[in-house]
Predict the structure.
Amino acid sequence: MHRTPPVPRRARTAAPSVRAVFVTLLIAVAVVAGARLALAAAGIQIIGMAEYSTLIPIVAAALLPLRQTLILGLANLVVGILAFGVLLTSMSHASRITVITALIASVLVSLAVCRARIAAERSLQGLMVARERLTLLSEASTRVGGTLDVARTAEELVEVAVRRFADHAAVDLFDPVLKGEEPAPGPHAGPVTLRRAARRSVPTALSAAAPPDSSTVTYRRGSMPALSLLRGVPVHGQLAPAADGEECWPADPNGTGTQAPHSVLAVPLRARGVTLGAALFTRSRHRDPFDADDVLLAQEIAARAAVCVDNARRYTHERATSVALQRSLLPQVVPPQPAMEAVARYLPADVEVGVGGDWYDVIPLSGARVALVVGDVVGHGIRASAAMARLRAAVRTLADIDLPPDELLTHLDDIVIRLQSEAAPTPAGSGEDAVADADVGDFVATCLYMVYDPISRRCTAGRAGHPPPAVVRPGEGALFLELPAGPPLGVGGLPFETAETHLPEGSLLVLYTDGLVESPRYCLDERLERLLEVLSEPKPSLQETCDHVLDRLVDDRTRDDIALVVASTRALDDGHTVAWELLEDLSEVARARDLASLQLARWGLPEAAFLAELVVSELVTNAIRYGGSPVQLRLIRQDTLICEVSDGSNTAPHLRRARTFDEGGRGLFIVAQLAERWGTRQRSEGKTIWAELALPPATVPAPAPALATL
């Protein structure tokens, strides 16, 4: 493509009505002169015929361009001189002078009238063009940038430009802009590769001849688009025949040249000192080429559109950052659990609402148990995500000390109330942004906490203002667990209650946030019934169950973010666990070691016997010496070996470092060094101290029946 200098505006071909008037008035000149000569030959003297000759140039001045008016006036003057000054010998000398003077005056008057009319028309036409351009600029300001989507903003720009400004328009953006990232700094000397974000053409054939949307286009070095990006100013001219193969411009759709673009304009899209791409406009041969005023108009429209594109790009970047932050605050993967298989999904809210405060978690507990958590901080934005992260960390901390669901929710409620006081709006004039903090002083949250024990197959759950979980038992339909509702977190002053239910192996637990069941088109009860209907349709895997629930319940009207957890329960039979009741006598320590050693041999884990005997010896000794009856030893075999010793005391032991000459205090320190994890949990009739030991990496055979007695 070769840049050519701007071409002057082509003179419009005279309209058929102007040509007809011109020919008619020429005929009138001849008719008037002929009629005057004929009447004079007949002896009839009608001096008024000369008046018609003087009126003809005046009529032409009101209807014709200046050139045609001059031609018609001179022709009328020449015919008048011949007719009245030469051929009509009967006229007096004074009459001839009068008539010829009147004809000369009529020519001069017609020229003056014509110039005045043309000046008025040009002024009016300029006002109309200016008004049309202002209207187009206003429309561009109104329609472009209606959304915060980069591609949609580019489409709005070409929609405004086509028909009223150009026959074909396209917007090419740098690929990072479409992803919400900062484009590479200029200058862009070329060749430059961009991605076509939007295009539109009139007629349709021209659109088919242009590069399609989402395709890459390359601006060759020296081409008009490349020059506009390099210089940062609009570049326009005629499309040279040698440049027909340029990728960015539409080709001749039919090969005849009637619809081929001949005048092109490339405008760089720059905002805040950054070049985002270019807007390309073309006109076909049936329209005037782009002139300097068109360039100014296109530059103004492109400048406003560039700001909108950059706003959309920045919003895309900020939203991607927010969503990435939100996802990073959630579990990246759900770790495998012996107690259950779980799959989770998180869907952020739409672009208008922003990220929310929904979260989920799957927490391994002592005794092969597992906790399922789903919560929702009311509100949206970064502050909701930050509050969610603090609550999730608090739930994990409280779960590690094995609190029951009602006590955990009570402590979590206190934490939310404390966060409310910490996040209170700052007073005016303190230098802080009080407006930004005004919406976080009273945030509340909802939470559902469930604990499943694969040995007893019992599930204990409590909820704080959260929707109830759904359960699908094997061979049964879906239903909601009947749990006491409880107040939302942050209200304070009201107790939380728990409920316990039996779940056979293979039961399906579904935990979710309110974004899944809330819809502006349906009431909550209808959505809850719809959820049960969807869950009653069995799927072969948990992944497919999650996808099925989201496909059937989430639509384009869902505005809140969604957290969904689907879990299938497992059970640990007698081949994985064994328990013994011990007497409150220190001689039982040796018996406990022997029981543990023989059971590990039955499980095919003789390599773990030494560590297990040492840990069991220390735990049983402490339980008999400092605890009290009843004392129980339990071993649980899963991916680790869990040793549990229960006693009747509620006093929890504390780890301490014994000094050189201390006679005690080394037991728990030894257990902590040998075990991967250890801890204590309270029971209604006492406490349980547990320790997890790593199993040997070698493959172990299937477990044998548990050893009940020795």
